[in-house]
Amino acid sequence: MGLFKKGSKLYSILNLKCPRCHEGDLFHTGNWSFQDIAGMPDRCPNCNLNYMPEPGFYYGAMFVSYVFWGFFCVIFGGTFIVGLEWTVNQAMILLIVISAICFVWLFRTSRAVWFNAMEHYDKKYE
Ligand SMILES: [Zn+2]
Question: How far, in Å, is the centroid of ligand 1 from the Cα of 99?
């Protein structure tokens, strides 16, 4: 089982696939689509896993995105302001643009991380 092959958590997270069967899509549209950003099917079309196990299930994904993006901003600021000697305003403008572009990707990937932390791959779907 490779790190990015079907059966690994990274496969499910990076491809936004169902954490149990790694076949069904978690979202109606693609990873970078700005249409129907939070739109998810009610259940996996392949294994019938409930994508909303309980009300408010995805609140935890906010913490995932907060931590991930917080670290990204610190590394970004360190690289551009300290390392490349950009002004804070220049770095902030670029950071805001990157944040706007990556918003959907971060939102969906955080949900996939959270769901994969709670649900595990079932080998019967290999
Ligand atoms: Zn599934």
Answer: 30
